[in-house]
From TrEMBL:
Transmembrane segments: none annotated. This is Zinc-ribbon 15 domain-containing protein. InterPro entries: Double_zinc_ribbon (IPR053281), Zinc_ribbon_15 (IPR031493). Coiled coil: none annotated. It comes from Amborella trichopoda. PANTHER family: DOUBLE ZINC RIBBON PROTEIN MJ0416, OS05G0435400 PROTEIN.
Amino acid sequence: MFFFFVGGVEQQVKQVLKPSITRCIRCGSRASLVEYENVLKLFFVPVWRWPGKNPAVYCDNCSLLLPERFIPLPENEDSDVDSRVLSDVLRCHSCARLVEPEFKFCPFCGSSL
């Protein structure tokens, strides 16, 4: 008898809480604060859904869903950090450290940007 399992768990956006609050750390486009849910799929059919624990940041451009703890600082006038400094640097999607925009690889962990 041969048995194989085709399925898995993925996260899907449930509701947008605040649109365009920050920039995506992968592609640099606008990202929104969202509520998400985990979805168990068997043979590509959703079987069971349950809510995520905390809000997350979701990028519509590259579909990156980032946990709340990795949310970059918002770009507004009330921030202590100059917004020009934030726009001139990126964050690594693996280790979340600040990286210069001209780098193609993270100097800290070596992952591609």
